[in-house]
User: Which sequence fits this backbone?
């Protein structure tokens, strides 16, 4: 299912020179050996969770693109089409470092062949990371991530979720003056 | 919504022993979804599960505003996933369910090298609205 109508909220910052940027450490974190889930909700405020893979952010931008597998994504895609709200939680299974990125949908499209390759690489990296814990990384590899839908959203909030005293802390974005 | 009781299948119990983390998603009354990993979904009886209230107050807060939640639980041997639609019922800060959860959480923390970091504040009890096997493994 392709969502053709991107719902965009009026930007909080109308001056392009003051657009928030994702911190560099988050750009790097997202590209690491991570596990990710997307949370959505429908019009009746019923929540829904789905797997996500291969999250990535553009340095110097405030958007994240991830791939949602076709299997078990029907509710999430319908929710996104309805209200555009996305919560993406990304975690490192070894260090337990975890962040939640919340924002609004910008675009959805079928994932490309290049992205299929990216998923394969990223899943393999995460399986090795789980193996490092002495656990069975191959179990993670059983999740069918392909085919999928590439979803891009604009990040409006970042929350730390690493277990510990800072869990739930909102992380402020840097802003760049032109 | 049907008021018929949904019964958890026996084979789901292995997913609720803390072998692998579970995923929980809730939604605030203002409509913001919140998804997080939790160490354990606890089997209470064939119609109810409990979620541990530890650090993530957002989950705890959300279900008091809007009682609906979804949990993804996984078999630690096969990674077979189950999808549960839940409705928050009540919270327990003492008693047998709380005590058993507290002991298990401390054991999970010890296994993952995080002793002393996990602290159970309450056992949140949920009614199971629906349960089904995920197709995430094809």
Assistant:
């Amino acid at each position: 299912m392709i969502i053709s109508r991107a719902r965009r909220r009026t930007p909080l910052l109308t001056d392009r020179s003051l657009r928030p940027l994702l911190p560099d450490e988050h750009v790097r974190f997202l590209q690491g050996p991570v596990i990710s889930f997307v949370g959505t909700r429908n019009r009746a405020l019923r929540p829904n969770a789905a797997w996500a893979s291969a999250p990535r952010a553009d340095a110097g931008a405030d958007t994240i693109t991830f791939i949602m597998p076709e299997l078990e994504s029907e509710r999430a895609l319908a929710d996104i089409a309805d209200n555009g709200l996305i919560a993406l939680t990304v975690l490192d299974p070894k260090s337990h470092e975890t962040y939640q990125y919340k924002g609004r949908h910008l675009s959805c499209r079928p994932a490309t062949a290049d992205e299929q390759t990216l998923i394969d690489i990223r899943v393999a990296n995460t399986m090795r990371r789980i193996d490092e814990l002495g656990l069975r990384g191959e179990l993670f590899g059983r999740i069918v991530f392909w085919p999928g839908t590439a979803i891009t959203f604009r990040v409006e909030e970042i929350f730390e979720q690493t277990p510990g005293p800072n869990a739930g802390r909102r992380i402020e974005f840097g802003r760049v003056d032109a | 919504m049907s008021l018929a009781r949904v019964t958890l299948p026996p084979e789901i119990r292995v997913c609720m022993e803390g072998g692998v983390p579970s995923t929980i998603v809730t939604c605030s009354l203002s409509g913001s979804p919140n998804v997080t990993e939790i160490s354990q979904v606890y089997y209470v009886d064939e119609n109810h599960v409990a979620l541990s209230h530890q650090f993530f107050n957002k989950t705890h807060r959300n279900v008091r505003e809007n009682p609906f939640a979804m949990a993804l639980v996984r078999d630690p041997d096969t990674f077979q996933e189950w999808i549960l639609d839940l409705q928050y019922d009540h919270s327990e800060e003492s008693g047998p369910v709380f005590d058993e959860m507290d002991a298990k959480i401390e054991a999970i923390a010890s296994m993952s090298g995080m002793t002393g970091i996990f602290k159970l504040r309450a056992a949140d009890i949920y009614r199971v609205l629906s349960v089904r096997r995920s197709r995430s493994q094809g």
About this structure: DSSP finds four helices and nine strands in chain A. The two ends of chain A are 39 Å apart (CA to CA).
